[in-house]
Amino acid sequence: MIFRSFIVYFICICLPLSILLGAINHNRIQKEHQEYLKSLDELTNNVASILTDRFTAITNTANSIFMSNWYKHYRNICGIYNSEFNTLKRMEISEDLRIKTISMGFISDLLVVTPSLDSVICKNGWFSIKDYTDFYGHISINTGAASNEPVIKSVNENYCTLVLNDINPRTDISVVCILIDKALFAKYFKQIQNDLMVYVDIKMNDQLLYQYGKNIDDGYSLTIRSNLCPYLYLNITYPYYNKTLIYENLYKSYIIQLILVILASIIIAIVLAIINIRPLNALLKRFSGAKCNSPNDAYKYINDFVDNISYINLQLQNENKNLSASISKFFTLMQNEIMFSMLTNPEFDFNDEYIRDKIPWINDNLPFIMALIEAKLLRYDECIINKLSLPEEYYTHFSTFKILDNEYCMIFWFDDPGFAKKQREIIRSGLLKALGDEYVVEISDIMYKPHEMQDSFKLLKHNIIMQKQLSFELPITLQIDLITKIKNCQYEECFQLINQSKNKFKPESFLVLLLRIAHEYEIDAKNTLELYKRHMNDKNHTKLWNLIVSFTSDIITTINISKSNKSKEIVKLIREFIDLNYNNPNMSIKLLSSVFKLDGTLISKVFKEEMGMTFSEYLLKQRMKLALQLLKNSEMSLTDISEAVGYTHYLSFKRAFTRFKGVTPKEYRELNYTI
């Protein structure tokens, strides 16, 4: 009887509980499966977002080269800035590229490739296309395409290339090539890589950038191609859910729960079977305080999940806002560049769609005048220029844009020539009154054709330069003397020259010259200008002259440090080149001058200062080091050894060896063999 009751109770208890437990765990496994897939999607999107942000930042940094003043001057179609690119200027540009490269992490180099000028500008210097590819050999540069656009490909499996076209329309095309070091990228990606990833495949414009693990057929794969970086392709594979520890732990948990249910059912069935044959009072007494706990589904992190989604949405909003601001700034810069080209490019197309949208009346033969505004000091005040406005009754149409950091252009169109003549002086007076003494304003004559702008711009620019020279410029002999002493780092002579000139010239004249020198060496003069304006307002001439002396000292110190650092870097590159090519019979100062685009006298001077020996002494030392090894450890003939170390004639080798070692090569070999 008890056994039969036990069997009935056991089946009635165990079967429903087992079914309920199975249903609960099945739902739990399904939900965990969905959460697992969601977490993988989120993880992959986060990785893609990080890579997109990184490459976007790299692209923006590289694109900033196209917006730099040196690049605009270098690519100027008229070639009016060619004289700026002396040796020091080229070294400064290469140093700037090197700093940009360091700031971008896994980027090995930034190359500015200009086929029309046969130049490759990089952190290591200025090269012709052939010299660069022969010396470094990381990439191939094909300039024979019909589109005049260079085709750049990596020929070294350790590097990938990303080529950015000039954002400004030009007949002959320049590009910036971003050279990505795969090893550095792998090191960077491992920092954001998750342990769940069993296979990672990252490609960039069909170039394999990074690969990890082995792809599996039954895995969960996600492929992403960024909208912001369409050249970036990301494929990540994760283990399928039923092969993860999460699934195994849930399965083990279910087995344990099932065993417990069976054990509990047995115990309860035994108890109920015993109770069934006892009096009702004993049953009530036995279970009066009993508590029964049933399994419950417990899911945590709901609030955390909702908070996390909210945080991600906020981040996306901020990123969209920043992106919109960047796009707006980019289009503003592009507009200024196009308008500047309108004033300087003789081949500018005034029927261009952009110009007709921006200035639809430009080809209507309306009379117009052009106003050019330039700050007397380094930069103009954005706030003053932005607030600058004239009543609309002064003109019919109006357009304005920034040319350079301290130049601003305004163009006014009128209905008829008579009205234009009348308003010309009114506009001039209004601008002078609004801007004050810190700005120079020049107004053109009345024009009718758009192409007249270019000659007028040159004339206005010339007049502004003459005005500024009359206002602030020191005598040319004094300028040359002071600039020479500053660049030669002659502290005492500079201070003596300034003290001797205090009673003859105003401090503003010296400030203008010092600002030009500071701009040339990229020295920040913002604090100096603020202090100068404060002392001017206080009319404290003693502090003004003290500030001039202090600013001169800062410039000399910066130049001195820059010269020292650049000399060391140049000698390091030259020494590495000699160490690799000392057995070249043509190795000479002339060859180094051709490779590094530097004056031979300068190379000899800085090499001796940094190395403590002349170029010839160092070359001889390297050649003799190899010669000694070959004489000791090989059976090569003396003629072959002389050619191996860089001498075309044995007699030249013999004289050099005797001068270096005191014995002839033959005597040295015999002596070494005897020992």
Question: What labels would you give this structure?
Answer:
about 675 residues, alpha+beta, 5-stranded antiparallel sheet, 4-stranded antiparallel sheet, 23 helices
Strand content: 5-15%
Distance between the termini: 111 Å
**What does the main sheet amount to?**
5 strands, antiparallel
Instruction: List the uncertain runs.
Output: 279-306
Q: Which structural class is indicated by helix and strand composition? A: alpha+beta
User: What's the Cα radius of gyration?
Assistant: 39 Å
Mean pLDDT across all amino acids: 80
Helix content: 55-70%
Number of distinct helices? 23
Form type: extended
Largest sheet, spatial ordering of strands: 3-2-1-7-6
The tally of beta strands, per DSSP, is 15
Write the layout of secondary structure elements.
Blueprint: H1 2-67, H2 69-74, H3 87-103, E1 107-114, E2 119-122, E3 125-127, H4 129-135, E4 139-142, E5 151-154, E6 159-165, E7 175-181, H5 182-192, E8 199-204, E9 207-213, E10 220-225, E11 232-238, H6 245-276, H7 280-286, H8 302-344, H9 353-358, E12 368-375, H10 382-387, E13 397-402, E14 407-413, H11 417-435, E15 439-443, H12 452-472, H13 476-487, H14 491-500, H15 507-520, H16 526-538, H17 541-581, H18 589-596, H19 600-611, H20 615-633, H21 638-644, H22 650-661, H23 665-674
Antiparallel strand pairs: 1-2, 1-7, 2-3, 4-5, 6-7, 8-9, 8-11, 10-11, 12-14, 12-15, 13-14
Helix pairs in contact: 1-6, 14-17, 15-17, 16-17, 17-19, 18-19, 21-22
